[in-house]
Amino acid sequence: MSESGEISEFGYIMELLAKGKVTIKNIERELICPACKELFTHPLILPCQHSICHKCVKELLLALDDSFNDVGSDNSNQGSPRLRLSSPSMDKIDRINRPASQRRSLGWRGWKRNSLTPRTTTFPCPGCKHDVDLGERGINGLFRNFTLETIVERYRQAARAATAIMCDLCKPPPQESTKSCMDCSASYCNECFKIYHPWGTVKAQHEYVGPTTNFRPKILMCPEHETERINMYCELCRRPVCHLCKLGGNHSNHRVTTMSSAYKTLKEKLSKDIDYLIGKESQVKSQISELNLLMKETECNGERAKEEAITHFEKLFEILEERKSSVLKAIDASKKLRLDKFQSQVEEYQGLLENNGLVGYAQEVLKETDQSCFVQTAKQLHLRIQKATESLKSFRPAAQTSFEDYVVNTSKQTELLGELSFFSSGLDVPEINEEQSKVYNNALINWHHPEKDIADSYVLEYRKINRDDEMLSWNEIEVCGTSKVVSGLESNSDYAFRVRAYKGSICSPCSRELILHTPPAPVFSFLFDEKCGYNNEHLLLNLKRDRVESRAGFNLLLAAERIQVGYYTSLDYIIGDVGITKGKYFWAFRVEPYSYLVKVGVASSDKLQEWLRSPRDAISPRYEQDSGHDSGSEDAYFDSSQPFTLVTIGMKKFFIPKSPTSNEPENRVLPMPTSIGIFLDYDKGRVSFYDMDHMKCLYERQVDCSHTMYPAFALMGSGGIQLEEPITAKYLEYQEDM
Questions:
Q1: What's the Rg (C-alpha) of the chain?
Q2: Per-residue pLDDT tens for 613-644?
Q3: In angstroms, rounded to a whole number, what is the distance separating the alpha carbons of residues 575 and 710?
């Protein structure tokens, strides 16, 4: 169809779709050529994997050729190369279709440095807006996208259900076709098909389908070797090739696979991706609903903000009108007063003129001959004449003409109005305090606002970060203060937190996101046991039983003499008051920086009884609780059957136990974390030690969990251990009170 006045084919189809005459999935955007904005016609696959109509490629290349030929001309077209040519010459079309080697032999060469000669094999893809190289064969080296062509034809057939495809062989008037022959590339009615495809002939074996105008070849041939069929797939170039391309062509050194294998692999990938998208349909719908709500909220907030802005400006206008009125009244009053003074002075001077006023009156008085009458009148007149004479000698206007005192100074106000913006009337962005924000059994998020008293409320948003890069929706919590405890978080997951401030309808931008990783298992709550093995001579336990201190006092000094004979003071043990018999648990604590030697970990009930029954005044220095073996045995680093695991912490260092892979001192010594976490998987018999600040595993190993396992701690010399307090709403209130 022509482009002038007549409706396009795509527009016609869309009209049928709108009327409900065509039922087909919403894939219109995939079937439209990015160049002509119509349904694809003989689409070609560009090297960038985008498709474009065959005629559009030719027209764009012809436009490029014309624009390059006009370089340096005053009338050259500087617009887009994507112009439509109504009647390109056959010479130009023939030139476009020639391979690059033939074009160069005819003087049509590629780009050279410092040359204006065009390289016509470079083509601007309308889909991705990038230049792609068509290669040596130009258009002839591009594959037709038969799959896309077939889908477009199905799309057209859905619209042509009401308009039949006529028989190509009928005598006028033609009948409606009932089938199309793919070998003959023609459509037939029933009678003509029987005539031209009689039984017992070769044509009777032709492949026929329903009425169509899309006749594609049965075998895909190689565009570089036109007599060879496509039977391989180049994995590097990602395009089908023939065996000659692999043997001696451009793909000789490329990795290729069979067409069946490529078909199977690509089809599986595509099917998997489609299934994934279909499986996420409910999520997409919910996100669309969320976006629609956000659009409505944005529209309402925008209108509200607009109304508030208008109100503010109207107040400014009222103030300006009021000030304008008072200033103009003051100027008018001063002007009237000055004009009155000038008018009186003018009248006084006009009286001095001849035949006018005082002079005329004085001249008449001079005509008086009676002396007594003259003296009586002339005395007062003489005073007036003297006054007028003096005023002539010292002329001074009765008022000032300048209104300098009435000039309105708006420079400061103009500067303030020039700085008037949304920022000055909006809210600053709140900032999350990373040092005070943490996650344990719950998440505690603290933030501060530069203008705390201005914001009416805050909205804390959080969402889980999916490892599959799945974008989950934000959860929102309205908060009146500047901190919030968030509960119900999943274990061993990353969460993103952000906050924004509200004042009326004005909303600040969101703060920078804070990412926190939750513990790998539910938090295990316990306190220090004050009965089992607790040595109150060396250890000091607080009333809440969540903090213990070891003080090197008089008893340690009395035992110091044993150092001369090679003995050391024993460790003082303390355990948790609750044991673990199944499941996964996580707990955390802080070791005071001044601590000399602290051991932390887990131990079975049997092992603890052995430790707590042993003499407490002397233990061999060769015995090492980290491994459960004599440290003098070099070949005994690791025993998965031991019923305990303890790591050493002291002097602001974290010491990793010996192992076959980590025996060097520099590899075993780490900086002591601010807070240390322990993760026990009872069912799998595994214990891990974590840096709580970054939720990073520092060390893990197997442990025998055949008996009840307890959190175990041991101290030597000065030291202290503080159990992490679970984060609750009361914890938050306590923090705010502090």
A1: 48
A2: 754 443 433 344 444 443 333 334 445 568 89
A3: 7
Q: Is the pLDDT of residue 250 over 80?
A: no
Q: What is the CATH T-level fold of the domain 539-562+569-614+641-733, as seen in this structure?
A: Jelly Rolls (2.60.120)
Tokens at 211, concatenated = 């009425």
Q: What CA–CA distance (Å, rounded) separates 525 from 602?
A: 15
Query: What is the rounded distance in angstroms from the CA atom of residue 42 to the CA atom of residue 142?
Result: 12
Both tokens assigned to 223: 């565009």
Are the CB atoms for 185 and 213 separated by under 8 Å?
no
Residue tagged 């990073």 (tokens): 696
Q: Which helix (H) or strand (E) holds 469?
A: none
11-64+118-163: CATH topology is: Herpes Virus-1 (3.30.40)
In contact, 189 and 176? CB cutoff 8 Å = yes
Biggest CA-to-CA distance, the chain = 164
Reported as half-sphere exposure (CB side, CA atoms, 13 A), residue 348 has a value of: 18
Percent helix, percent strand, percent coil in the chain, to nearest 5: 35, 20, 45
**Domains of the chain: which residue ranges?**
11-64+118-163, 225-254, 261-392, 431-518, 539-562+569-614+641-733
Q: How far is CA 133 from the centre of its chain?
A: 33
Q: Where residue 523 falls among pLDDT bands split at 50, 70, 90? A: very high
What is the rounded CA–CA span in Å between residue 271 and residue 572? 63
- Candidates 2.60.40.10, 2.40.50.140, 3.40.50.300, 3.30.497.10; correct CATH number of 431-518? 2.60.40.10
* Distance in angstroms (rounded) separating the CA atoms of residues 176 and 189: 6
Tell me which residue of 693, 645, 687, 686 sits closest to 670, measured CA to CA: 693
